[in-house]
């Protein structure tokens, strides 16, 4: 066994509908090491939020976990009963969700809301819980006296900080963040992300971070996984992936966002549209949009394969390249990267 | 550039009146905004929420009236209600492709409506033909299939293309694009931006492009106007956005843009905060947040000064 904090293996999630079962997450495997920031990238419908919800077992109907395992610190998460889940959620793994700023209760003060979670899980007294609430606010850069404020008295960025404080209340070892800064202005976004980095260094938690903003993902995350139509197509250390993406889809994504520096070359993006999961393309699900597709791609699905430098990619092209040759190339790249 | 501008905003001010209990509050959304947009030119308005960029577009679309100042289109000042003729020359594309199409109507209906209303096509057959043509122009092929789809059967990118086709139906000279790609998936965004660029090249359409994303402004626009609290603080050539920006607010924005090469810990050149739009104080609106602020900044709004060519900056302190 490895010493990974979280191990997801062959995770499958289906939506059970009247039309039949729809596979939205298909055999996804990855690991998160303690203290790592793992990013999940992909288009809408690629399954990134669903994976996060499955890890915490908060999938809403019609989503059902239909296969695979999720292990947190050796515990089999999918086998936990209600009580076990109570001990896992918030204490070990917490969640900052997409519209978290609107998740605060408008009629009680933020101090009471923070205090509630602490009181319920740590069994401390109310007065102690409130003291902790104050500390938590200060941790995320809000004055302690704001415990008496109501949600509407705070700006969007402050509310988001409160939600992050809440997620950190019980010192979890893994925080799941689903587009936590999407609705915020760039300056506020950067401040919050810097705070997350600082807190992670102080408290040592790991993060799974979802965003559609690839620049942000490469900037923030230590590792990045790229999802396409419910499957993980590439997984690698983030700077290595940025320098040299292996999967044509990752490459397409990277050619999709304009840059502030360098030549203003014409960008091509990824042609076509995301697939209909009801009738996913045979073989590699990306092949209808792939500029480098060949005969094999439409018949055989490539497997996610481990490559050098902790990289993984699921593409026949990567398989095809003479393995020794590929190792040489990658080694060179890695050497150039490390000064 | 010597010709008459297509669109000219002259000292545009917009004040919204609100109520706070018994008191009347005045929110100043636009503060003496002036700009000129030439035929076939793309001009980007960039800024955070509350900077007045969408308000500017609403004024031009005539969805709102300015409190003072003039809007001239093709040399004529707008006054009173604008007629169909204006609407056939100026069109708008909105941010939310899910909200801007009627879910109970097929794609063809959305595009046929402006065609009929503006008399661009007559009779069922001709309308249908034009609809299919427009769908092909925006890259929705096979057009006949898309024409009979409902909005919910299209992806976000496809819906935004329908909205573009609808705007194109009347052969506009100016398109107001309010964050046209910010709700789309990354891989589809660039396709929509490229389509808009192509239309600009081929048909000479001018754009007022509103975005909070400096990188897409740089990619799409010929000139970038950076706005803060209803005021244009800097106007510059997008190509050198990163290197030539001078205004402290532009620099703050630039330092906040995520850099894929890493650098999350590189310090911000300033801090977040919000401008006082309600009963705003005189002077530079950015002064309370600005690290370069001098006592004089709070007294009067500085002038927009030309640095060189088309680069203008509203900050005497950094220019001194």
Fold and architecture overview:
The complex is a heterodimer of chains A (339) and B (320). Chain A has 339 residues and is an alpha/beta fold. Chain A folds into 2 domains: 219 residues, 3-Layer(aba) Sandwich (Rossmann fold), CATH 3.40.50.300; 80 residues, no CATH class. Helix content of chain A is 33%, strand content 22%. Chain A is built from 11 helices and 12 strands. In chain A, the strands form 2 sheets. Chain A has an 8-stranded mixed β-sheet with strand order 6-7-8-3-9-10-12-11, sandwiched between helices. In chain A, strands 2-1-4-5 form a 4-stranded antiparallel β-sheet. In chain A, a hairpin with a 2-residue loop joins strand 9 and strand 10. Chain A starts with 5 loop residues before the first strand and ends with a helix. Chain B has 320 residues and is α/β, with parallel strands linked by helices. Chain B has a domain of 187 residues: P-loop containing nucleotide triphosphate hydrolases (Rossmann fold, 3-Layer(aba) Sandwich), CATH 3.40.50. Helix content of chain B is 31%, strand content 24%. Chain B is built from 11 helices and 12 strands. An 8-stranded mixed β-sheet of chain B has the order 6-7-8-3-9-10-12-11, sandwiched between helices. A 4-stranded antiparallel β-sheet of chain B has the order 2-1-4-5, with helices on one face. The chains are: A alpha/beta (339), B alpha/beta (320). The interface between A and B is large, with 43 and 44 residues.
Number of domains of chain A: 2
Helix content of chain A: 25-40%
Rg of Cα set of chain B: 21 Å
Spans of chain A with pLDDT under 50 lasting ≥5 residues? none
Question: Looking at this structure, what is the CATH superfamily of the domain at 7-89 and 209-260 and 268-319 in chain B?
Answer: P-loop containing nucleotide triphosphate hydrolases
Query: Quick one: how many beta strands of chain A?
Result: 12
**Main sheet of chain A?**
8 strands, mixed
List the secondary-structure elements of chain B in sequence, H or E.
Answer: EEEHEEHEHHHHEHEHEEHHEEH
CATH architecture of the largest domain in chain A: 3-Layer(aba) Sandwich
**CATH topology name of the domain at 7-89 and 209-260 and 268-319 in chain B:** Rossmann fold
The CATH superfamily of the largest domain in chain A is known as P-loop containing nucleotide triphosphate hydrolases
Class based on secondary structure composition and strand pairing of chain B: alpha/beta
Distance between the termini of chain A: 32 Å
Percent helix of chain B, as a range, is: 25-40%
CATH class of the domain at 7-89 and 209-260 and 268-319 in chain B: Alpha Beta
Output the number of helix runs of chain A. Answer: 11
Number of strands of chain B: 12
